[in-house]
Design goal:
Strand order of the largest sheet: 3-2-6-1-7-8-9
Helix content: 25-40%
Number of strands: 28
Distance between the termini: 45 Å
Largest sheet: 7 strands, parallel
Strand content: 25-35%
Length: 474
């Protein structure tokens, strides 16, 4: 089975791991090698670039959202889906080793060991450890010489101390040229025992702009394919792609037991074979979704019908509505001008259409956003600030019965926004691992609306309850 996989992890945020990950993905695609993309952590934007490059949905791997068994199972399932294509090839220069289906490429999050607080929980390291994925460390080596070795040795030592053994198998030296890499290579390899997989010089042509929630989205970069081709050509000339493939092929098979949620999914779909339609907001304003959330809905018999709140009407014959996050504040004026859609959404929700509205979708349901009229389902307005609101991993638990089930139904979730609501609601208890707790959001038998982005696989039974509500809606 095809379980080849590698992780690109960084020494910290801003070291260049996203650029290098995307560059290598594109270079491998140029070689006609199927790339199965993954992203550590709760990020939405990097996976959009992965999907644009590879033509495959990028899967978030997050050890706060999932336990070890479930996380390894979802990774294995994604890797096995590539086998089903029958896409096999031989790897050049690897002693005849067969690339069985392609290669899983995992992009890390923050620094390799950075997780929740001063622990490796929910870190790239924990995910690499759980999945036994070999790691290539990305280092910004600009202005460094012997210090590079100290840095690498520190990371290797920490990985071993935390039970990671020899997970770190290579390094890519970023922001330097060939001459500096040649100068460093032999000493680094002799003193650290790991390979210098290559280098990556500064690339102004491939730079991507950022904004308050991270990079601009892939759909907003008009010349993205051209930029990625430039980066891929650089990766092909300065990074040893064959060595990456060899390291990826050294990963052991994944063999987790089947999680309990698989039984729930099979049982539900057997009893409910007929599909139901759900409208999903997908455009420049609403684009933050976990691909696994959408896939789970599809596995439960939901046909996802994309539409644009910027310009479209509500799709016909729907029994549910999903308004995800994104950047609606940048398009508030345009959203407000689509008055027929705002009216339709308000009327449908008022008569019981099941709805999930997360963060940007929650903002859209207010009476006003940034001074512009919105759907008016939630009394009050929301507005942007310059200060990050509640940020990080949270557990969301209902204070009363809602569209997901009885009082006490919970999800693992993530919250990250600069907006504020003057009517934030109190229907959910939201708590962080450090003990901080507050109430927010709106829950009814037909609706979830709040800032937290829910991770559906953390409570499949609750998602089944939502889909059952959809099936009963007429």
């Amino acid at each position: 089975m095809g379980y080849d996989r590698i992780m690109f992890a960084g020494t910290g945020s801003g070291c260049g791991k996203t650029t290098i990950t995307c560059s290598v993905m594109k270079a491998l695609c140029h070689e006609k090698i199927p790339v199965i993309p993954f992203k550590c952590g709760p990020d939405y934007i990097d996976p959009m670039f992965h999907s644009f490059i590879t033509g495959r949905d990028s899967t978030n791997l997050d050890s706060f959202f999932l336990d070890k068994t479930a996380l390894c199972y979802l990774m294995k399932k994604k890797l096995e889906e590539s086998v089903d294509t029958g896409d096999l090839s031989l790897a050049d220069g690897l002693d005849g080793m067969e690339i069985r289906s392609g290669i899983g490429i995992v992009e890390g999050v923050m620094g390799f060991f950075d997780g929740m607080g001063m622990s490796p929980k929910a870190s790239s390291f924990e995910i690499a450890l759980w999945t036994q994925t070999p790691v290539i460390l990305v280092i910004n080596a600009r202005g460094m010489a012997l210090s590079v070795i100290a840095l690498i040795q520190g990371y290797i030592s920490m990985a071993k101390r935390l039970g990671g053994g020899n997970l770190i198998r290579g390094v890519i030296l970023n922001q330097i040229g060939k001459g500096t890499c040649d100068f460093l290579r032999n000493t680094v390899e002799e003193q650290t025992g790991i390979k210098v997989v290559g280098y990556f010089p500064p690339q102004e042509e491939g730079m991507l702009k950022s904004r308050h929630l991270g990079l601009v989205t892939a759909a907003e970069v008009a010349d993205l394919d051209e930029r990625m081709n430039v980066l891929a050509c650089q990766a092909a000339s300065s990074i040893d792609l064959s060595l990456i493939r060899k390291l990826a092929a050294s990963a052991p098979p994944l063999d987790p037991v089947e999680p309990d949620f698989e039984r729930l999914i099979r049982g539900f779909t057997k009893k409910n074979p007929d599909p139901v339609r759900m409208a999903v907001a997908r455009d420049h304003a609403f684009c933050f979704y976990y691909n696994t959330n959408l896939e789970l809905l599809e596995r439960l018999g939901v046909i996802l019908v994309p539409f644009s709140p910027l310009s479209d009407d509500l799709p016909e014959n729907i029994r549910g509505l999903y308004l995800g996050g994104g950047y609606p504040e940048l398009y508030a004026h345009q959203l407000s001008k689509n008055t027929s859609l705002l009216k339709s959404i308000r009327e449908e929700i008022n008569v019981g259409l099941p709805v999930i509205a997360e963060c940007g979708g929650f903002m859209y349901l207010h009476e006003a956003m940034e001074g512009f009229p919105m759907a008016g389902v939630i009394p009050g307005s929301c507005y942007m600030t310059k200060k990050l609101g509640p940020f990080g991993y949270v557990k969301v638990q209902s204070e009363k019965a809602d569209v997901f089930g009885n009082k006490g139904t919970w999800f693992c979730a993530h919250e990250f926004h600069y907006s504020r609501s003057n009517a934030a609601g109190r229907d959910y208890s939201v708590s962080k691992a450090n003990g901080r707790q507050w109430q927010e959001g709106y829950g009814t038998p037909e609706m979830y609306a709040g800032y937290p982005h829910l991770y559906f696989y953390s409570n499949v039974e609750a998602v089944i309850h939502f889909v059952t509500k959809m099936r009963r809606y007429i």
